[in-house]
Design brief:
The protein is of the alpha/beta class. The strands form 4 sheets. Strands 7-8-9-6-10 form a 5-stranded parallel beta sheet, sandwiched between helices. It is globular, with a radius of gyration of 24 Å. Helices cover 54% and strands 14% of the residues. The chain folds into 4 domains: 2-132, GMP Synthetase, Chain A, domain 3, CATH 3.30.300.180; 137-307, 3-Layer(aba) Sandwich (Rossmann fold), CATH 3.40.50.300; 318-388, Orthogonal Bundle (Helicase, Ruva Protein, domain 3), CATH 1.10.8; 395-498, Orthogonal Bundle (Chromosomal Replication Initiator Protein Dnaa, Chain: A), CATH 1.10.1750.10.
């Protein structure tokens, strides 16, 4: 028997036992995995299955959780971006209920398998999901190790110039004019890039300085483990004896009061010692639900800067650099086409180019000669990608409309509170996000308060039922108790979103 430690929403910790499955359970799991593989192949087609799954993945099913073992970060990023919903649907069709799907690097695959697109030498996309970050942080970067992302590869434009200059100031000034530096914005806009860039610059320009880069999830896991193993002093020494502490996805600390308290003391110690804290988050500090008031006040006392989606010029430069990075000739007209049609974030730009390169490479393999990328190919290959990536309605519009209509704040939608008013606003936000954007359930859940995809599916089913019955809904608004039919609520919310 083995064990892991975790902290619940009340801040208490517990040791969770993990037992080895018996032979009968193993045989059943094997049969489930085989059925899921067949269902995936049927859903996506045999050709795609052979390219991306056969001999490239290892499925493991345990206690309602499906783990997909992959050879490297590139494959994990691609599969999660393009096939997560297909895998989840296939698993649901086999086991009859929703299950968690996660991806992890499997060393056995890495040592024996070369993926079909390794020849592209495509770099792994920027941190895309919870599983990817967890996999690489087991060997946590320290002051002597180089991180992947640097300032030199960061494309500066009007949308991120202030954040970039603030990050440079942290490195160049011995005593930073602001502490903490809090960078927030949507996913795939470069927050992680700036945090890693700061640490890499510190490594070069101030080699004697100590820095530490990790995720808030890693901070929480280390803290809980230190409590259980009675090594809290060693944990605190490691976190508090740094010149720069860079923590990504700080919103992960929401609903974890004990970890929040520990981080507050860590921050205070560093701040009093004149040392720097740099944080990245998807939302403004005041928009993070279930975050202590003390922490929010600390965060807003420093430099809070937002990164906006890149402008057209920046998107073109991002595409050029990515093409150069994978040694692929992409015509300027194709770069302009991609940049003009995909506007929301950098990862989607990279995903579009990667899809083009993959298509060109696979077509070239089938005909025995290289197939050059041109505008007509881009228009044909990326038609669906562009339609899915750049929705007319953004999730921020949806949550703002729902918060205003139900008389609450958007931070309440992000919180874990479950009173009727907040629950209705959250359910309708998730429903409208599924209806009006091309985001997956997992992405919607993460953007609306780090909820899982199952929560989103349940919310959508509830709203579907309300609409089908045109149920009478009541909630406590800012002007008192309100009553309205479900169809009228939906109609008004959709009107507010587009206004």
């Amino acid at each position: 028997m083995q064990g892991i430690v975790r902290e619940d929403n009340r801040g208490s910790t517990e040791l969770v036992e993990v037992r080895t499955a018996c032979p009968e359970q193993s045989r059943r799991a094997d049969s489930v995995v085989s059925a899921i593989s067949d269902a995936i192949a049927e859903r996506i087609g045999q050709q795609k299955f052979r390219i991306w799954f056969k001999n490239s993945t290892i499925f493991t099913f345990t206690d309602g959780h499906l783990k997909v073992g992959v050879a490297n970060l590139f494959i994990s990023s691609w599969l999660e971006s393009h096939f997560h919903d297909d895998i989840a649907h296939a698993a649901r069709s086999v086991i009859g209920s929703d299950c968690n799907v996660s991806f992890a690097i499997d060393p056995h695959l890495g040592s024996t398998h070369k993926p079909a697109l390794d020849c592209l030498q495509a770099p792994a996309l920027a941190k895309t999901a919870h599983f990817t970050h967890s996999a690489v942080t087991q060997n946590r970067p320290t002051s002597g190790q180089k991180l992947k992302l640097t300032f030199d590869s960061f494309v500066v434009g009007q949308s991120n110039e202030l954040a970039f200059n603030a990050a440079k100031a942290v490195v160049n000034d011995k005593q930073s004019p602001f502490n903490p530096l809090f960078i927030h914005g949507g996913y795939g806009l470069g927050k992680t890039h700036l945090l890693q860039g700061i640490c890499n610059e510190m490594r070069i320009s101030r080699p004697a300085a100590k820095w530490l880069y990790l995720s808030a999830e890693d901070f929480a896991n280390q803290f809980v483990l230190a409590l259980k193993t009675r090594k809290l002093d060693a944990f605190r020494a490691r976190m508090r004896q740094t010149d720069v502490l860079a923590i990504d996805d700080i919103h992960f600390l929401a609903s974890k009061p004990s970890t929040q308290e520990e981080f507050l003391h860590t921050f205070n110690t560093l701040d009093l010692g004149g040392r720097q804290v740099v944080l990245a988050c998807d939302a403004h500090p005041k928009m993070i639900g279930d975050l202590s008031e003390k922490l929010v006040n600390r965060f807003v006392s420093g430099m809070v800067v937002k990164i906006e989606p890149p402008d057209f010029k920046s998107r073109c430069e991002i595409c050029r650099r990515y093409a150069r990075g994978i040694n692929k000739q992409v015509p300027e007209e194709v770069i302009s086409y991609v940049a003009d049609n995909i506007k929301s974030n950098i990862r989607e730009l990279q995903g579009a180019l990667l899809k083009l390169v993959a298509f060109s490479s696979l077509q070239g393999t089938s005909v025995g000669t290289e197939v050059k990328i041109d505008l007509s190919m881009a228009q044909a290959v990326l038609a669906e990608h562009i339609e899915r990536c750049d929705p007319m309605v953004h999730i921020s519009d949806i949550e703002s409309a729902a918060a205003s209509f139900f008389g609450i704040t958007t931070s309440a939608i992000h919180s874990s509170k479950k009173d009727r008013t907040i629950a209705l606003a959250r359910h309708f936000s998730m429903y409208l996000a599924r209806k009006h954007t091309r985001l997956s359930s997992s992405e919607i859940g993460r953007l609306l308060g780090d909820k899982n995809h199952a929560t989103v599916l349940v919310a959508c089913k509830k709203v579907d039922d309300y609409i089908l019955r045109d149920a009478q809904l009541n909630w406590q608004g800012s002007a008192g108790n309100r009553v309205c039919q479900a169809k009228a609520v939906l109609e008004q919310l959709e009107k507010n979103i587009r206004s």
